[in-house]
């Protein structure tokens, strides 16, 4: 962020932990973590894709001259150049920057694209890696094709907008900058280009403005509080000792989960344990004793079938599912593609997986055996099975229709081990597969490889040169295979009584 001044608030300072802005000034020497750099790299890839699609010059020169100014938003004079380009009336301005103050609070925003409206005002457009709209046959909203920005008019699209606060705040600050420059649109309309790089979806920014203003004016907190994002925050080595020294209850109950206890004056984990509030106090004691999982009852169980398959899907953002992994107790069978997500190849890959699964089911039936398929937290698998059917049924041979998928999902053959575990266990740090499987004695070959790493690995696997791509593919297959095996391990462990987990109330 070359020229960005640390004391100016940026839109990302306004969402999530507000203590970051304090730590950023306290510890300017701490540089961003690799995951943050990777996220930035993914955003850069998306931004470049969009900038490449923007019109350079109109295909046919109309009456209105078309000009495009590409600015470097890291340059010292970026804001000055932005104002110059606005004054010159350029049709498209990329890499714009605005700064300003609101009641003495200084802010700064980088605007990916400014698009000149016919009345001379500008519409800010932000590029985001979020999914900003979803197709909806019953609703309409407005959007402009990215290739027509600055040239075309908005069209009615059958879609609904999804809200992402950060995108709304970025647009709000952009409009505040345009206001200062005397070029804000009366309509307060901005646009966001999300994972679907073809469309800029129009957003009424007024709905975000009050919250963005409030966030700007809210004073920064004076102490840290553990929240979800601490896990990926560069300042954790500074905040953790502070929280530990205070025995802050957020170390055990993150974010606002401890609010009800704070309201009762319980601010430390020790106080929560001593308060003897039933289950929560027992779980707090388990947390203090570093016990990851507890049994609610002495007896535990899991569904059992003669033939059991564990399944795990990997997807890249919202673009498609590239890997369906299956473990049959002896062999790991990956169905995978490393390119052409969203194209017929994705449907064909799923069709191979589906046909394999059905053949295992039919074989079991012929041999008079029961058959069950397992996954851990079925939301992802359900989403991608249904989405694949919707996108490819009738177009790609072997892809089932939605009804067939729905019948499978609602059948006894489809089992969510997370739901099974949750009904019998409780974990101070939650019951994610990563928390639970180690208690069941399972360990991943690829340690420290979490969701965001897999996104980055897919980017390398699908775009880098050999042997880097090959290494990333091997890593993803190992990770996915171990997720399948970990699901199986949890099931076996529950059947054997989950004895390594103490019974709640016994600690
Ligand atoms: S480690 Fe957590 S509390 Fe500290 S600045 Fe980061 S997100 Fe905030």
Number of helices: 16
Mean pLDDT: 93
DSSP strand count: 17
Bound molecules: iron/sulfur cluster
Provide the number of structural domains.
3
Q: Which percent bin holds the helix content?
A: 25-40%
Shape verdict: globular
Low-confidence stretches: 1-5
Largest sheet: 8 strands, mixed
State the secondary-structure class. Answer: alpha+beta
The separation of the N and C termini measures: 50 Å
Quote the beta fraction: 15-25%
Order of strands side by side in the largest beta sheet?
1-2-3-4-9-10-6-7
Rg measurement, Å: 26 Å
Protein name: YprB ribonuclease H-like domain-containing protein
Pfam family, one: RNase_H_2
InterPro entries: RecB_nuclease_TM0106_put, YprB_RNase_H-like_dom
Domain YprB ribonuclease H-like: 416-494
Task: Explain what you see.
- It comes from Corynebacterium glutamicum (strain ATCC 13032 / DSM 20300 / JCM 1318 / BCRC 11384 / CCUG 27702 / LMG 3730 / NBRC 12168 / NCIMB 10025 / NRRL B-2784 / 534).
- The protein folds into three domains: 11-217, no CATH class; 228-291, no CATH class; 307-495, Ribonuclease H-like superfamily/Ribonuclease H (Nucleotidyltransferase, domain 5, 2-Layer Sandwich), CATH 3.30.420.
- The chain is built from 16 helices and 17 strands.
- It has helices at residues 19-26, 34-53, 78-88, 165-180, 209-217, 236-246, 259-263, 269-274, 279-288, 344-366, 379-392, 402-409, 417-424, 433-439, 451-463, 468-495; strands at 68-70, 92-102, 105-116, 122-127, 133-135, 141-145, 155-157, 159-161, 189-193, 199-204, 294-295, 307-316, 320-327, 332-336, 371-375, 414-416, 425-426.
- The strands form four sheets. Strands 1-2-3-4-9-10-6-7 form an eight-stranded mixed β-sheet, sandwiched between helices.
- Strand 12 and strand 13 (320-327) form a beta hairpin.
- The longest helix has 28 residues, at 468-495.
- The two termini are 50 Å apart.
- Iron/sulfur cluster is lined by residues 17, 19-20, 23, 224-225, 227, 229-230, 233, 235-236, 239.
